[in-house]
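Minimal example, chain plus 1-deoxymannojirimycin.
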Amino acid sequence: MRRIGNKLCWEVGHPPGIGMMLKSLLLTSLLGWASCQESQTMTPEEKTDIRDQIVEMFDHAYGSYMKYAYPADELMPLSCRGRVRGLEPNRGDIDDSLGKFSLTLIDTLDTLVVLNKLDEFEDAVRKTVRDVRLDNDVVVSVFETNIRVLGGLLGAHVMADLLRQRGERMQWYGDELLHMAKELGHRLLPAFNTTSGLPYPRVNLRYGVLNPLSRTGTESDTCTACAGTMILEFAALSRLSGEAVFEEHARKALDVLWEKRQRGSDLVGTVINIHNGDWVRRDSGVGAGIDSYYEYLMKAYILLGDNVYLERFNIHYSAIMKYISQPPLLLNVHMHNPTVSVRSWMDSLLAFFPGLQVLRGDLKPAIETHEMLYQVTKQHKFLPEAFTTEFRVHWGQHPLRPEFAESTYYLYKATGDPYYLRVGQSIVEKLNAYARVPCGFAAVQDVRTGTHEDRMDSFFLAEMFKYLYLLFSEKSQLPFDIDDYIFTTEAHLLPVSLSTTQPPCQGNNTEAVPIAQEEDLFTYSCPSTQTLFPNNPSFAKTIRDSYKYLTGVGRAFHSLPVREIELPLHDNGMEPVEFLKSMGISLTPLNEATAGETESHREHKGVYRVKLVAEVSQTPEEEEVVPHIVQLISPPFLGRTVLTAGPAKFGMDLTKQEHGVKGSIVKASPYTACGPIDNAGDLKGHIALALRGDCMFAGKARRLQEAGAIGVIFIDHREGSNSEETPLFQMVGDGDSTTDISLPLVFLFSREGAVLTAALEEHHNVDVLLLPKERQLGHDKPLGMNIKFRLAEEGELEEGAARGPTLEFVLEKGEVLLEEEEEEEELRGERQSRQQYCTTASENDSTEPCSSAVLSPLDSSQSPNSNSGPDTNP
Ligand code: DMJ
């Protein structure tokens, strides 16, 4: 047992680890301190109002699910019906959560108890016991089924048992939920049948993994979080059921991940080979792909009291704080070369991390990162799935994820600062304003457009409402002592008393080898008010205040030194500032910005000195997405059907191919191109069509390249997506080198993809041209000027004129006009031979009606944008 000063970190009667972080760290004592804080207070009445509002919202969401969707797995809140796997278009790997086991009902059970809806809970448990089958012939994600369904059953069993023991309710309950949990545990176990002990990512609930009827078992990789997020549920199942096998398997998987950590950096990668334990993706962060692995090490220690988990967590945590944390940012690095960030964007899943930092007692970075996330939500209403280091949208989807609410709850518990109640209030208001629909709450397809998606994931009911309700509730208002429980990653409640329940098998404990590590104040202990806030009741506010204006337009997150550039004047008759302004670049003359400059510098003839206000082109995320097209050129289309497409950051650069890439299209088999390609013979020399989802774009591209395809058109699996409503993005690689991929790759949203597949079905032979939109055949370019910028070499300009980098711009109008004319000639020739093209600029064809399938080009409001989907989500 360890101490901070004289303060015990857990309460008398509990062995080490039990409830430690929850009872003391989380933090009754801090609330006492917090009450003296002068921050925006919230009256008890206001808190009650908001809590009532949250209950009303829950009723709307859960009521809609039960009314329109149950017994289906999920509600489709726009169609007001249930989502049944196989009856709706396949959405790829997202659908692996759906096992025809009334997912949302099970995921919601213990939320009903937290919200004091005990009648509804009893009724829902009866329905679960009566209706739910766990032996369906469905391939499901092991990770999702574990955290949502097994966790849901266990959390509900624990609550049912509690109510039964009180003698008022649930007297009929005979541990049925625990029996179901045990059955499900056994159905997941075949996934662990690998030489390494790392689980397969998917399992067939009826046939397991290796059975020929299972339709799974060909995968070789899994994500780190997928393998490392089993221990809480599996250990709880073992300890409640008396069967050791579950805890043993989960612990073995954690042992493998620990063994495979990069010994130099103590970081782990994102994807690992389940057979040989080699890292498949070596980028390392705290968000998508890894997140709950770290969470479960810390919480396994809290739940099970085993020091090994804490020691491992602490070593990883030091590495995270050394390499990944750049407060307030958390940026992925390469696990072998951790001093270099591999991304300039963050994903929304990392929003859970401040909550974990609270459990670890590291409040300062938790407050900083949380504040940064809050600023992002203020700017975009919700946390986009991915956003850049300058807080622009990188991927605009928001599936009503709860992680930000979760961290807000932990920070409020830790600081008692009513500021966090205001943050919670803003979450509630935004959900009502922007996600509420008549049949529930709908995910946001793109935070920039506010369009909805027909999905309401079960975690919205399992997690979001729990954290929001708890945020606005006093301990005394809850039906049980919340501090006796730990939240799983899906916010299911497991009792910390499990740590006193010995594992059924004592012989296989993970060995506690003492691990040398740097220790700090909180390595083995929980924080105290005195340590964290010595004489500084405004602790949290002081930290937050430095991050208040993070997302101001054109402002980087840290103050950059003023960069000077010198803009030489050329004899073009235009003022450079005016000229650049016309291009959307805003510059401030240095004499307004800097005092104390010598006149000679300011007035040098031919050189205009400016301060670079916006760091244009400095960061990769600012890159403009160059719209591409898929143009159908064989009869009867003859170039009239033009589909707007997104480019890829890897593979062949189509902007450098003068005439694009032409070929006839063939559908890949399997369509997702995630397994061995069956129809290599058909694909050879053709452009492959492949469905997005299930595995990485890069993996698909490699397989199709090997099969002999000459290009790939990826088609979105998200039903109804289209380029008019969703900004284009650039596909990104898999985090490793993609230089081996030389194919041209483009991406079509599903509505455009449907045009192409319909064309293929009808005409069998469809030739297409892949090229940047601006080079669309038959589409005249407006005449313009070619502008070149270059940085002058030091000393290249007249002596004394150039101090520091110098930007030169040259207008080359005449030369370009000549090229334009040549191109015009070429196009005219092509037009004559093809007879007709649909383009407004074409003189000959202006009377030809455009095919209805011609999709409008991106308008200027959509371009430029730099929206690429996170590469963890192909
Ligand atoms: C939840 O299912 C879990 O929190 C999981 O760990 C990852 N995130 C989703 C919700 O965003």
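Residues 44-69 form the longest helix (26 residues). The chain is about 35% helix and 15% strand.
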